[in-house]
Amino acid sequence: MATTVVVGAGPNGLTAACVLARAGLSVTVVEAETTVGGAARSGPVLGAGTVVDLGAACHPFGAVSPAFEALGLGAHGLEWLRPEIAAAHPMEDGEPGLLLPDLDRTADGLGNDAAAWRRLHAGPRDSIDHIVADSLGPLMRWPNHPLTMAKFGLRAPWPVTWTSRAFRTERARALFTGSAAHATLPMTAPLTSAFAVMFNSLAAVNGWPVARGGTQAIVDALVADLTAHGGRIETGRRVSDVRELGDPDVLMLDLTPRQLLRLKGLDLSPSYRRRLNRWRYGTAVHKVDLLLDGPVPWYDQRVATAGTVHVGGALAEINRAERLAATGTLPDRPFVMATQPTVVDPSRAPEGKHILWAYAHVPYGYRGPAKNPNLAGDRVIEQIERFAPGLRERIVQRVDHSPADLQAMNANLVGGSIGGGSLAGLQQVFRPVPALNPYRTGAPGVYLCSSSTPPGGGVHGMGGHNAAMTALRELGLVR
Fold it and tell me: Which InterPro entries match (predicted)?
C-alpha cells in the first residue's frame, strides 16, 4: 500500500488527505496546532455558549465546491444555511444595495440599473456550474468549457473602476464593488471585475451560505470522512525537517511559500526556490469579534437580515481604502467585511445575544501604535456605526485579532494576509510559480496543496483536491 503524509490540517490538507485515503493510500496528517482546521476553525471566542469562526465565515464557493460534493460531506453532518439576503451594502445617503439569492430581484431593487445588472450577470448565472468547474483549478490549461469561459473572460480582465461605468447609480456601483473587494486589491487592479461577477452570480444561484454550527462543521465533516477511510491525524507535531517523516510515496504540503522554504530536507531546485522567494503576501486583515445584546441596529432593517455586510460606502471610498492598505497606510475609513451568523444560526450565541464577525483590510503585518494596539479595531467599530448608530451600546464583549494574532493562530496567514498570498499582478494566475501544473514542487513525490496554489483562498478544498489528483495520476492510480 502506498503511503502519504500530509503536513498541515487546513481544509486543503484535509481534502487532499480524504481524496488519497479514498484511493486506498495509507494517509497520515501531521498538524502543528493542537486542533485541526487552520483558518476554518470555530471556538467559544466570546465566552461560554458562543461559536465564533476563527477565520473564514461565509462560503459561497464551499457550497458549490466539486471537491466537497465528491466527498459527500453532507453525510457527515455538514449543513448549509442561507440568509434571505446574501449580502447588503449600506449607503450613507440612501437605500442599501441588496444582493439577493435571485438575479431578477437583485436587479429590480437597483431601479435604473436593473437592465445593466442583468446584462452583466445573467450569462454567468446561467453557466455558473461550468465557470466554477473551470475556475477552481489551474488557469494555464485548456478549459473544459471554452466557449463559456471565453464569454466570461470578456467581463473578467477589467478593473472595477472601468466596469462600474455601466451603472448609473452609486448604489449599484457600490454593491458591485463590495463583492470585488473580496480580492483584497484596489479597485483599479485588473481582474477585480471577475471577482465581483463571480461572487454576485454565485449569490444569484446559491446564496452565500454559512455552515450550521460554524465553519468548524466543514472541518469536522472532512475529519469524519478521512477517518472513515482509514486515515489518521497527529496534532501538536510541528515539522521542521521532512526527513523525520520517513520516506512516504506522497508528501503533501498545505503550506505557503514561506513555510515551504523553511522546511529542511526538501530537494527543491535552485530556480524553484528563487521563484518562491519572490512570492508576496499582500494586504492583511485586523479581525474583531463582537457579542451583542441584540441585533446590529442598522439604519435600514433589511441589512439586519443579511448574512454578509460590506461596509465601505461608495466606490471611490472603497478604492481609496484598499489603495492605502495595499501601500502601507491604515485607512481612516477601512473597508470592512462583516458577517451576522446568528441571523440564520441562533445556536451560535446564548439566547437573545448576537455575534458580529468583522475585519478591516489593513497593511501587511500592521501593528497598531503602542498606546492603542487595537486602533484598527476601533476603526472597524467606527465604520459600522456610521451605518448602524447605537452599535457601541449593544456590545457585551469585544475581542480583537491583529495580523500577528492571526498568524499565531495559523502560520499560513503570514503577516495577517488571508488568501495564501496577494492576488496582485501575475500572482492571480501564477500560483505560486508559472507552471502548467502548479501543485508539483519538482521534488519527486512532493506536492503543494495550500491556498498559495490555484484557485487560491477560501474554504472549498480545491487546492487539496487538485494536488491529490495530480499525485494519484503520477502514481498511475487514476487517468
Answer: FAD/NAD-bd_sf (IPR036188)
